[in-house]
Amino acid sequence: MHSEPRAARLPPSGRAAAIWNEPWSRGYAPAHESEHLGTLAAKQTPVSAPEPPGRPCPPAAELATFGARALSQRELLRLLLPRCEAAVLERADRALALLGSAREAALLDLPHGARVLAALELGRRAWLLPSPRARRVFGPVDVAAAVGPRAAPDETWVLGLDARLTLARLVPSVDEPGELLRAALQGGAARLAVAVRRPAPAVATTIDHERATALAALAAACRTALVDWVVLGDDGFCSLLRLGLLASGDRRYR
Question: Can you give the pTM of this predicted structure?
Answer without folding.
Answer: 0.51
